[in-house]
Amino acid sequence: MHAKELLRLKGSAKKKKPFAIKAILRRPTFVSEGRNALSVLLQFQKRNTHIGIIVDDQGKTVGIVTLEDILEELFGDIMDETDREGKDDV
Q1: Residues 67, 51: contact at Cβ < 8 Å?
Q2: Domain containing 54: what range?
Q3: I need a labelling partner for 22 at 20 to 30 A (CA). Which of 41, 77, 79, 88 fits?
Q4: What's the whole-model pTM score?
Q5: Three-class SS of residue 20?
């Protein structure tokens, strides 16, 4: 689900039009553990998503990967509005 879709729903609610949240939900993107960053990037592009659920060989969730994670793996650190200069890595 994207924020712009929620804003459309909010507009519908103000006009007292019925809406179904199921109409804007998307199936999650699952990423097999051990796949390389480039193949995950291509999967994200194909599915038009920015986040994936990492699963192991048994299908158990082992983590989450974001588009930013992948881009940083491929191109190095990306500074954005939430990053502070000189911030210590933990």
Answers
A1: yes
A2: 3-75
A3: 41
A4: 0.67
A5: coil
